[in-house]
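Thread: ATP-binding cassette domain-containing protein, structure

OP (GT): Posting the sequence first so everyone is looking at the same thing. Length is 321 residues per the record. Can we get the structure tokens written out before standup tomorrow? I want them in the notebook alongside the other entries.
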Amino acid sequence: MESDFIALDGVEKVFDVRRRTGRLRREKTQVRAVDGISFAVPRGEMVGYIGPNGAGKSTTIKMLTGILTPSGGRVRVAGIDPARERTRLARHIGVVFGQRTTLWWDLPLRDSYRLMHRMYRIPDDRFKANMARCVEQLDLGELLDVPVRQLSLGQRMRGDIAAALLHDPEVLYLDEPTIGLDVISKAKVRDFLRDLNAERGTTVLLTTHDLTDIEQLCKRVMVIDHGRLVYDGALAGLHEVGESERTLVVDLERELPPVEVAGARVLRVEGPRQWLAFPASVSAAPLVAAVAQRYPLVDLSVREPDIEAVIAKMYADRSAL
Ligand SMILES: Nc1ncnc2c1ncn2[C@@H]1O[C@H](COP(=O)(O)OP(=O)(O)OP(=O)(O)O)[C@@H](O)[C@H]1O
């Protein structure tokens, strides 16, 4: 069970939608938001779940919380069928939606937390310990008596993350937890999540458009597109799938015509500096040697492929199919 703490097997979600096709006419159509997804996440793993807008990420998370019932397939979280036993599952999971808050808008954070204490029937000692930990690690001390509506987005997000953890869940779903946050708030949230996962072994499923979140937090990433899983593996492996390229930036002694060497193509020439693209999967050494042998080289550097470009290319390639 531990190796498939979260398990999806051929999961589908189809929405019936009515579309207006004329002044009085409406047409019934179906949207396959999730189209046969299978994956397993072992206990204690922190996994990124990414994809373009409308790919089916939120729908998957809603099925994992039990808010939505799958149209087909099987979902299990901590051995529980979420849609059937949503209340029982609630004790095991915490959910944070970056775009909306679970806190009471007009109440200070402290009062929201007190309400959750009672709603979730959290034992007093656990509540106190978790509260103390979150307040310290998320730097909430000075914010506890401020009404939620007066908090900045970053402060509110930290407040929301604490709220999701007061009942000590084993699983945390995060849907865009860093959206709209400034650089410092993002760093605080990421540090906290990293510690939470390392120290408490909380299993984390993270949905985000910010690939830095993934690069800094997740070894494994799943990519979903049009309701299907198109990649599940190490973040590094995405480069191979996306056929990404590295860039060799060379500074020559003087301005010269585009460099000609096998295995690379010149992307740009700017005075004595030239940018050469070569496949990320091959070593830079022979290329550097070839350039150095034939051209008056002053300096050089190698730039790693940009993961965002890799993923953008993956999406583009698939939609061209
Ligand atoms: N309640 C609903 N009724 C009808 N269609 C829906 C419903 N919820 C989602 N959809 C559709 O299902 C598809 C997947 O939506 P979903 O919100 O899961 O995508 P997402 O990957 O989370 O996107 P985003 O990154 O924009 O949040 C979209 O085409 C969306 O319009």
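GT: Both are above now. Quick notes for whoever picks this up: The two ends are 37 Å apart (CA to CA). The chain has a mean pLDDT of 89.
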